[in-house]
Amino acid sequence: MSQAAKLRAAIKSGPLIVAPGAYDCITARLIEGTGYAAAYMTGGGTAGMLGFPDYGLTTMTEMVDNAGRIANAINIPLIADADTGFGNELNVTRTIREYEMRGVAAIQLEDQGFPKRCGHLEGITIIPLNEFVRKISAAVRARRNPDTIIVARTDARGGGGFKEAVDRMNAALDVGADVAFLEAHHTQEEMEQIPKLIHGPCLLNVGRFGKSAPPTLKQVADAGYRIAILPGMLITQVIGACEHILKQARETQTAPVPFKELTIHELWACCGSKSWDEIKETIK
Known about the structure:
By secondary structure, the protein is α/β, with parallel strands linked by helices. The chain has a single domain (3-240), classed as Phosphoenolpyruvate-binding domains (TIM Barrel, Alpha-Beta Barrel), CATH 3.20.20.60. It contains 13 helices and eight strands. Helix 2 runs parallel beside helix 4, helix 4 packs parallel to helix 5 and helix 5 runs parallel beside helix 6 (129-142).
């Protein structure tokens, strides 16, 4: 069974899928190693890994290559951010095919204008509804594996209002999107209403910053969501930890004690050394 088929089955009948945000292979391996059922390739994290803010500065090639590396490093489904599809319906078609060829289980497309930016920043613009629907239709038609999941995201809540955001999600589902992602809800009540008003499986961004206070994962599951992503969790922790350690090393002029002591063997085990050792041991 493909990773896309596994994810599709889990969305249909399993418990809430919690997918922390990975921005490279090591964070993805850690997500898998700690027992999560899926990983989410964050577009903002990918931009940050390349030294850019989440301002739509990454190219399709940069995004899809990162998705391919991550998908190849893990044995759980990968949900991958594909920003706006990098253009019109033709660009979306190629984007879907490129992500699919790299083993991505679910591909997320949003309705922002150019340049797109983090959904919790100000100054976001959205494209007209008919353009968004055409892009989602193109994405649905472009997939070669019928199990590949198309996640439609709207950023209309800020500029157009809650009702418009809900209507956009239902319009996307009507043309074949598999999952709806209404970004940046404003209140707990809105969070609870989204799965009731949208006619299909819903995904929620659970973060500690932005326009909405983070619910617990139990609250997310109880509200009826099928997927919860935590896109910024690891990258913010890593940045905070690195800044702390670097300052401590400069101030104390010594190598600081790590948050977690790892032996060399434990370090490389996080990167899959066991499976590589097994290959070597079985070759005669």
